[in-house]
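Supplementary notes for students who missed Thursday's class. We covered one full example, reproduced here. Read the sequence, then the structure, then the short commentary at the end.
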Amino acid sequence: MALFYSLMKPPVQLALRVFFRRLEIRHPERLQEPGPLLVAANHPNTLMDPLLVAANRRRSQLFFLAKSTFFQNPLSRWFFERSNCIPVYRRQDAESGAADVTPEELAALNEKAFGRSYDHLDRGGLLMIFPEGTSISERRLRPLKTGAARIALGAEARRDFQLGVRILPIGLNYSAPTRFRSDVLIYPARPIVVADYAEQYRQDPEAAADALTEELRRRLEDHLVVTRDDAEDALVRQVEDTFGEYLVPEHDEGSPYEEFRLTRTLLQGVAWFERHDPEHLAELHQQVGEYTRSLRQLRLSDEALQRSGAGRGRLERGLLTTLKVLLGFPVYLFGLVNNYVPYIIPSMVARRATKDVEFVAPLMMVTGMFTFGLLYPLQIWLVHRLTHNGWLTLLYGLSLPVTGFYALHYWDQLTQRLQRLRLLRLFRQQPAVVEALLRQRRNILQLLAEARDAYVAAQASR
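Structure (token representation):
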């Protein structure tokens, strides 16, 4: 098992760096904490969550508690057993028939899983668990099960609380969990020392497990973006995506942690306005919703409107952009032709294989590891057979990933350019529509300015 884990780690590390545009670890030294350690994280993205943590551990291998349904298929059982996974049996799976056990067998099987977990921690190992018990792609933290606390306390109790087990809470924050080239922030909290609950455990084990679970929940929430419902999540996403730079002009858009801080600030502001000025919040919600729908109907972006002003150098910028588009097109076409098949197959496989959005990203990444890993060598071999030129073959091989990334960048830039041209055409044909859209935008900026000033003043007076 250790050999398989070690062999798989380098390609997974590379695949994660390719899949995510920006991957940031806050307080990376916490992620390297030695064992015995129980790693507890939120669980929005199924298999991607353990891969992110395991791939960024430098030394000791992680073991994982995984739901038993992953072990039913012979192929997946072979993979998960060799990936250091210990099966746990959930009551809902047994009752629904998803797990191949009766409810009566459930307790005995989980006692066995707990025993293996105790033994692993007793040897100074690292064990990862997802205390929510299920994976749902939402910016929420669902109620935590007490399993993580009971394992940590049970392992310590066997050694009279002299073992030194700690729980490391980790917040996993995805900008868009299912999208290729999105961002992710791995945000570990300070570890919880399990021995601090020794006296409470001796008096009342259940109360100690509840108290430890509550502390784990609190530290996870402090390191996560947590929205209360879909409506709040939609509003905050719309504001941060469209007007975040205006609200906090000094924040660094290149940092997932800065985006995390911006979102947390927006959520605090929303909560404050709900208590102190709900009418202002309701108006902002309505205006942003209408503006977003108008942009979608007209197939425009806010950036296109933001750049629509006359301004000095507009003609020069337009000519320079056009020149870049023309000169970059051959490189884009080369990158597209040579990368399209291995690029498109993973998304096709993911769409056909599952309807659960939580499985889309890991399926895409794993499939991409195979498609690029097989087709790149095949393409390089074909070029060598056709040219019989080693240097040309080497140059072609090196060009594949470079031009592939360039093709993605070129397409994004071209899309933005086409939106600005669409806006210009719309302004000539239907100027009233564009004026109304710009007026909507100005109204929203005014509402946001008033909200920001009121919130800042309220915080300053506290």
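Commentary. Residues 35 and 124 are 5 Å apart (CA to CA). Residues 230-306 form one domain. If anything here is unclear, bring it to office hours.
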